[in-house]
Write a structure and sequence with these properties.
Strand content: 25-35%
Shape: globular
Number of strands: 5
Strand order of the largest sheet: 2-1-5-3-4
Number of domains: 1
Number of helices: 3
Oligomer: single chain
CATH architecture: Roll
Distance between the termini: 54 Å
Radius of gyration: 16 Å
Largest sheet: 5 strands, mixed
CATH superfamily: Phosphatidylinositol 3-kinase Catalytic Subunit, Chain A, domain 1
Helix content: 10-25%
């Protein structure tokens, strides 16, 4: 794989610790990154995602969509050659797990 197709990423967890940096193909999807994060999540943390759907990735202030590739999510400004891109990880369990039974009202 050519060097220019690789992007070095690290994932910042809620407590300030990191997973990575790890090199990924720019063709890797956000969904693939989430799967890897869940599989490499430190088991000594209080909050542990059970599935990739429990994880949100944020880069440059934007929540990344699962079907986007790393190359599509890159922020052109602020990128340094050979630099590591930090993505923030938010664990948000799916609504089905956190449902309180309270009715939801829609404001009109």
């Amino acid at each position: 794989m050519p060097e220019e197709d690789l992007v070095e990423l690290k994932f910042r967890l809620y407590d300030g610790s990191d997973i990575g940096p790890i090199r990924y193909s720019s063709a890797s999807t956000v969904a693939m990154l989430k799967e890897r994060i869940v599989s490499e999540w430190p088991r000594d943390k209080k909050i542990i995602p059970k599935a990739a759907s429990d994880v949100k990735l944020i880069c440059a202030g934007k929540i990344l969509e699962n079907n986007k590739t790393v190359g599509q999510c890159r922020v052109p400004f602020g990128e340094l050659p050979g630099g590591v891109i930090t993505m923030h990880v938010v664990v948000q369990p799916s609504l089905a797990k956190t449902k309180t039974g309270m009715p939801h009202y829609i404001a009109s």
